[in-house]
Design a protein that fits this description.
Rossmann fold; eight-stranded mixed β-sheet; 17% helix; Peptidase_S9_cat; prolyl oligopeptidase; oligopeptidase activity; protease; serine-type endopeptidase activity
Length: 728
């Protein structure tokens, strides 16, 4: 057994002295006891020194976690410049009125409203683009004290726009409770249905009832891995069973002995106001990867007796399905790694006989929506997007001009109205809400999002390509002040994610200016595992090929050095969630490459990931230890298993939210304890805990600003930047 010496307490003073010329008198963080558990996988023994931390309810674990959090808070608050940085970030984040996540119901528009000074978004609506704005739900008014906050998780309006169902959760937990608002009276109805996280609500044409998903109630003996798993779909009628108990289950695992529904995180039903059919989805991870799809006549949906017919399995590559009358349109990657759109009659929905509406082309099809006049298709073209208008039979297609190159998000259409609305933004271009009507020469700004007060011509963005270990060209987006000099002096953050086929598309982040103002650079690595180049790019960075994602990230960092933007002593790695796997690679593959690693709510012990609440749904992406190949893939990407004693690791700030439902806090806890024990560099390894936060969804503006200020001030301190060095 390794000795439980307080390594960080011994070395922190010398680290601070070496970096800043200042001494440090604070005590070190609490040292975690080492209690090895050895598990042998297919002949490979793996030692876990901190397995006991997975019991988050253990008072000893909680005491250690609190001690770490308190110590980290003391260290970060002592960094000069940190408070000013937080104020600057929050002012940048809270300056603009933002409206997004639009849904159309005729002329009525629903959307999320971010007002200057507000901590969380509100739910609002207006009748017509120029109509008066009405606030429906303000989560900030639900808090009884400053220590807790509530957030709006999702919303879904009825087809006639009178009612809207919405989810509210507390403290970033994403544990949504479903409520319903009546716009006619302006009052909430009696509905209060819990266990509706990530809910998909589909209203029926009567506008008095809807389908919704709900997770099973966990009992005292429910294992964590099954606590948010196999959500079923229920039918709810307004005014009946206001707490959901007694609603009929219509689809899900175990609902009917006659319908084989695969295990997964959730199930839900999709409807269209002009279609007599319903599509049911069994979604493994509530994402846009291939899932299992079923169809049934809407008038035949009667609880467990509903005659659902399976029309697609994950092998068919269908990632989205939409109804129009008696036809179904699907987005699929089968035989088309850049995706294609197919259509089948719902009376005989055989994908093998489907009509090709939009064939695979040079670009990646990112999303599509159906309006009354046509199909609107967003295509990914390198670092920007294109919009196509395609006839329902696919015989006519038109490219729609956009105001500027950028990321196109949130296609909003109405089945009974022509045209489309969508958001458009870039790395240095603030979001606009754009609309296109048939017959117009191009899409135009609606004015729904006022001009940003923070958008500045002082900054620019461009793309370069790093060369990975195997010759693969990896795009790197570089955001910096205009005319940045290549003299190797710039504090640089390399950002990466690279999982689930999700892309890090250009997005306006006004708070980044607080880093750029320090002479800094932000470089976004578009690694394999993401979706920048379609399904093949995604699959080249998952399971046994996940090493490509990590090595692509390292190649991106080395590119920034090779092109003389920065040096290792000014280099930070930053990733969150599944990007924690990449942060683990930054630590373990080349510990000397980065001066700082910022690991936010990251996955670090991939071998144990499937044992937690959000673990099983991620098996298709990450793999499972239940198979030998799955173990080898997870073992390679599990940084926690590859931390070695006596290694000079960089400075690290691990961040977690105590209420995180997606990546359990014990990932960051175990990793912090292990690196604190193992490092020989003398650089600080800190664990930051927000007890009123989860995975980041639902966090307030102040929480996000403080987290960024902590991370960036910590990085600038360790890089030796003036203004962030502790005084003697």
């Amino acid at each position: 057994m390794k000795p439980t010496k307080p390594l960080l307490a011994v070395t922190l003073a010398s680290s601070l002295f070496a970096v800043s010329g200042a001494s440090w008198s604070a005590d070190g963080p609490p040292v975690a006891p080492i209690r090895p558990v050895t598990e042998t996988y297919y002949g490979t023994p793996v030692v876990d020194d901190y397995r006991y931390m997975e019991n988050l309810k253990d008072p000893e674990v909680q005491h250690w976690m609190k001690g770490q959090a308190d110590y980290t808070r003391k260290v970060l608050d002592s960094i000069p410049g940190r408070a000013v940085m937080a104020q600057r970030i929050q002012s940048l984040m809270g300056n603009d009125v933002r409206r997004d996540n639009f849904t159309r119901r005729g002329d009525r528009l629903f959307y999320d409203l971010f007002e200057p000074g507000a901590s969380v978004p509100k739910l609002a609506y207006r009748d017509g683009i120029n109509g008066e704005e009405q606030v429906l739900v303000d989560p900030a008014k639900l808090s009884s004290d400053s220590a807790h906050h509530f957030a709006l998780d999702w919303y879904s309006p009825s087809w006639d726009g009178r009612y809207v169902a919405y989810g509210i959760s507390e403290g970033g937990s994403e544990k949504s409770v479903l409520h319903v608002m009546d716009l006619k009276t302006g009052k909430a109805l009696a509905e209060s249905i819990d266990r509706t996280s990530d809910c998909v609500v589909s209203w029926r044409n009567d506008n008095q009832s809807f389908f919704y998903l709900r997770y099973p109630k966990a009992g005292p003996d429910t294992p964590p891995a099954l606590s948010e798993y196999n959500a079923a779909t229920f039918l709810h009628v307004l005014g009946q069973h206001p707490e959901g108990d007694g609603d009929d289950a219509v689809f899900g695992k175990g609902v009917s002995k006659d319908v084989d529904v695969p295990e997964g995180q959730a199930t839900y039903v999709l409807l269209s106001p002009d279609s007599p059919y319903a599509v049911a989805v069994a979604n493994r991870n509530m994402d846009d990867n291939p899932n299992t799809f079923y169809v049934a006549p809407l008038d035949k949906i009667h609880g467990a007796k509903t005659p659902w017919k399976k029309i697609a399995t994950p092998e068919d590559g269908v990632t989205d399905a939409q109804l129009r009358g008696d036809r179904l349109y699907v987005l699929t990657e089968k035989g088309a790694p850049r995706f294609q759109i197919l259509s089948v009659p719902l009376k005989h929905p055989d994908l093998g006989l489907a009509d090709t509406i939009v064939p695979q082309g040079a670009n990646v099809i990112d999303a599509f929506e159906l309006a009354s006049d046509a199909i609107y298709v967003a295509e990914r073209a390198g670092a920007s997007f294109q919009l196509q208008r395609v006839s329902f039979d696919g015989k006519e297609s038109k490219s729609i001009g956009l105001p500027f190159d950028g990321t196109l998000r949130g296609l909003a259409t109405d089945a009974h109205a022509p045209g489309v609305m969508f958001g458009l933004q870039g790395w240095v271009k603030a979001p606009r809400e754009i609309a296109y009507q048939p017959g117009a020469a191009a899409a135009a700004d609606t004015g729904l999002v006022p001009p940003s007060k923070t958008e500045s011509d002082a900054y620019e963005a461009h793309d370069e390509f790093a060369t990975s270990y195997d010759g693969t060209r990896v795009p790197v987006s570089i955001i910096a002040k205009k005319g940045v000099t290549r003299d190797g002096t710039h504090p640089t953050i390399v950002l990466g994610y690279g999982s689930y086929g999700l892309s890090l598309d250009p997005a306006y982040r006004p708070e980044w200016q607080a880093w750029l103002e320090q002479g800094g650079i932000i470089a976004v690595s578009h690694m394999r595992g993401g979706g920048e180049y379609g399904d093949a790019w995604h699959r080249a960075g998952q399971k046994l090929t996940k090493i490509n994602t990590m090595l692509d990230f390292i190649a991106s960092a080395r590119h920034m050095i090779g092109q003389r933007y920065t040096q290792s002593k000014y280099l930070a790695a930053n990733g969150r969630s599944a990007g924690g796997i990449v942060m683990g690679g930054a630590l373990t593959i080349d510990p000397g490459l980065f001066r700082v690693v910022l690991d936010d709510v990251g996955v670090s012990d991939a071998l144990r990931f499937e044992t937690e609440p959000n673990g099983p749904p991620n098996v298709p992406e990450m793999g499972s230890t239940s198979t030998e190949s799955g173990f080898h893939g997870l073992y390679a990407m599990s940084a926690y298993a590859h931390i070695h004693d006596g290694t000079p690791y960089p400075a690290v700030l691990f961040t977690t939210g105590a209420n995180d439902p997606r990546v359990s806090p014990w990932h960051m806890m175990k990793m912090a304890a292990r690196v604190q024990e193992a490092t020989s560099s003398g650089r600080p390894v800190l664990l930051r805990v927000d007890y009123d936060a989860g995975h980041g969804m639902g966090s307030s503006t102040a929480q996000r600003a403080n987290q960024l200020a902590d991370s960036w001030s910590f990085a600038l301190w360790q890089m030796g930047v003036a203004g962030f060095q502790p005084r003697p």
